[in-house]
Design goal:
The complex is a heterodimer. Chain A is an all-alpha fold. Chain A contains 5 helices and no strands. The model of chain A has no long low-confidence stretch (mean pLDDT 89). Classes of the chains: A mainly alpha, B mainly alpha.
Chain lengths: 147, 504
């Protein structure tokens, strides 16, 4: 737990440093007003201090992780979702969505083959009908497939 | 006012809107009765489906869902001892024992009536309180709005987590991320790192779906998906008698008031309301020993309070434009989609939206009573929806919902980014609600801060010129200190307990 919180704290401090330094390239204020850089600088400093305090606290007190489990499954799902976004442009919304839903079902532990076949097809059809035809959203068509 | 209310009903009485209310209520009960899906996730997931609707209709269906989900949570709390929403925890204390005694029908009958009363009462309070409050808020200038935003954020940050630093880290991170995009004062694009898509900042919809829906799926995937609990009995046909209802009147009335008052407070929502109300009902009861073993008062107290908190939470949202909870922040997202900023001006500029919402909330509660009484045994089957299907469906809806706002895959990457952020944060005990609230309020806080200093010529004393802003800033300081005070009291209590032990 404390290692996790420390890692998050370091990342947040790094983020605030990037924002803080970047803000110096902003144009200066005109007249007696605050420029675009003051507020972000204030927030970046505040985040640095709070993150430091949080790391300090994490080592001082004992805290248990909120939930412990097979975190690799969550990580795998995030990677699969990244692939889904990337491939939807190449292969097209319909095909990638069917496969994506199938993979997530399987990853979540579904082993009923009827559900594994019917749900990806049915739910993709539902979403496509609602968003493509009813709400008029031009869902990504595949560069390779054309749909 | 009466005229405006009549106009509100006029707006709502079209077959589309009535259908949307029935649909919203049904989905709401469904969502509420699904463990793992809370009202806020439900509202976030339904939001993309309302893109094509006019703003009033979109609010109507989302608020109907919000209200009904609070009731829906009680169904699984009673039948399988698993609260469908966090706010139904206290309902399970007595609801499940009642169900085991074969009195499930009684518990559910009390739950639906108490929920409906809580919802109707809080809507009336909302109607009568928000109009004068909005009139009062019309006098607010930039310093007052700055102080209000700071107060809202501090109280949420200190109440939403056991660990106050984590709450504040989340809130400040949200404020920092909100600075991404074109600065409205100078027109300079801040922190866009060469990405043209970031010119307008992170869109609120993928942020919401990422933090509330996607992160929740990652969490569900990590946890062991165990055997689904199924009902071992049916609800039975024994309904509460009129006499039993009459006996519950004092509890229900009191719990409604508790629910509204706590609902108004930013950061404290339905869950805290129902727990406090349950506790109060137990203290006021003639036979408190029955609580936890199947007291109808327990179910009534918890359910009247969590539904009453809905109307309470909408008061600061509509009158001041400041959401106090995750769900109301999502409703701001729905308004922002249509380029509407909630706030006191809304009452005069778009009365049809505000009064239409009031009318639809009244109707939604009545529809909830009818649907709830009529189809209980259907709602209970919801629990048979496998979690695997839930995970896949939520991710697929989040993808298409984020894509649909700008027809761009960039927003879907934002969705995934905030999904991972939310998951990591939840795993290490950070609250995510402050991030969302900060991203919704961030623009108002920064712009009123700068506008105030612009009028004062850079003099920081402007924040202390008006009584309202001083009062709000003092309240912010108090809420900032709250965690320290409760920590001190806990330690003192622990010390006295230890002393007593030593003396023994």
């Amino acid at each position: 737990m404390k290692w996790g919180v420390t890692m998050i704290g370091i990342l947040l401090i790094a983020l605030s440093v990037v924002f803080y330094l970047k803000s110096f390239s902003f144009p200066p204020p005109t007249g007696k007003t605050l420029g675009p850089s003051v507020w972000p600088q204030l927030m970046a400093c505040l985040l640095m201090v709070l993150s430091g305090l949080m790391i300090f606290n994490a080592w001082r007190t004992r805290e248990e992780a909120v939930f412990k489990g097979r975190y690799y499954r969550a990580a795998l799902a995030a990677v699969v979702m990244g692939l889904y976004i990337w491939l939807s442009e190449i292969i097209g919304y319909i095909v990638t969505t069917i496969f994506f839903i199938f993979i997530i079902l399987y990853l979540a532990g579904e082993r009923d083959w009827r559900l594994l076949i019917i749900f990806p097809l049915g739910f993709t059809a539902f979403l496509y009908l609602v968003f493509y035809y009813l709400i008029d959203v031009p869902l990504p068509a595949g560069a390779l497939t054309g749909f | 006012m009466l005229e405006n209310m009549l106009m509100g009903f006029d707006v709502i009485f079209s077959w589309q809107n009535l259908l949307l209310i029935v649909l919203g209520v049904s989905i709401g009960i469904l969502v509420g009765a699904t463990p793992g899906l809370s009202g806020s996730t439900g509202v976030a997931l339904l939001l993309p489906f309302t893109f094509g609707l006019p703003v009033t209709s979109s609010l109507v269906v989302l608020c109907a869902l919000y209200t009904a989900a609070e009731y829906g949570g009680s169904i699984t709390a009673i039948a399988i001892n698993t609260p469908g929403t966090p706010a139904a925890v206290a309902t399970a204390f007595d609801g499940y024992p009642l169900f085991q005694q074969g009195k499930g029908g009684k518990a559910l009958g009390v739950s639906i009536v108490a929920s409906t009363y809580g919802g109707l009462f809080s809507t009336l309070v909302l109607i009568f309180a928000s109009v004068p409050l909005a009139n009062f808020a019309l006098r607010f200038g930039p310093p007052e709005y700055f102080a209000l935003g700071v107060f809202g954020l501090t109280i949420i940050a200190s109440l939403s987590s056991e660990n106050w630093v984590k709450g504040f880290v989340a809130a400040v991170l949200g404020l920092l991320l909100k600075t991404v995009g074109v600065d409205p004062f100078s027109g300079y694009p801040r922190f866009i790192f060469g990405k043209f898509e970031l010119m307008n900042g992170f869109h609120i919809v993928p942020v919401l779906l990422g933090l509330f829906a996607v992160s929740e799926v990652f969490r569900m995937l990590e946890e062991e998906i165990g055997e689904r609990k199924l009902m071992d009995k049916t609800f039975g046909r024994i309904l509460p008698t009129i006499k039993e209802y009459i006996g519950l009147i004092p509890t229900i009335l009191r719990s409604g008031v508790i629910g509204v008052v706590i609902g108004v407070m930013p950061g404290a929502g339905a869950t805290i309301a129902s727990l406090i109300s349950y506790d109060q009902a137990k203290k006021m009861s003639k036979n408190p020993e029955k609580f936890g073993k199947g007291a109808l008062e327990g179910v009534a107290a918890s359910e009247a309070a969590n539904n009453a908190s809905v109307g309470g939470a909408l008061i600061p949202l509509l009158a001041l434009g400041v959401p106090g909870s995750a769900t109301t922040a999502i409703l701001v997202g729905a308004l922002m989609m249509k380029n509407i900023t909630p706030g006191p001006e809304l009452f005069s500029k778009m009365p049809e939206v505000v009064y239409g919402l009031f009318a639809s909330l009244l109707l939604a509660n009545i529809v909830m009573l009818i649907v709830g009484l009529g189809a209980t045994n259907i709602w209970v089957r919801v629990n048979r929806i496998p979690k695997t299907v839930l995970c896949a469906a939520i991710l697929a809806i989040s993808f298409v919902g984020s894509y649909a706002i700008g027809n761009s895959l960039f927003d879907v990457w934002v969705l995934l980014g905030f999904g991972v952020l939310g998951y990591v944060f939840k795993r290490y005990g950070f609250p995510v609600a402050p991030i969302v609230l900060a991203m919704v309020l961030g623009f108002m806080v920064e712009s009123s801060f700068r506008r105030a200093l612009l009028t004062s010529g850079g003099d920081y004393r402007i924040f202390f010129h008006s009584g309202i802003s001083v009062a709000l800033l003092i309240m912010a300081v108090i809420s900032f200190c709250l965690p320290f005070i409760s920590e001190y009291r806990r330690r003192k209590k622990a010390r006295t307990m230890a002393n007593i032990d030593i003396e023994r």
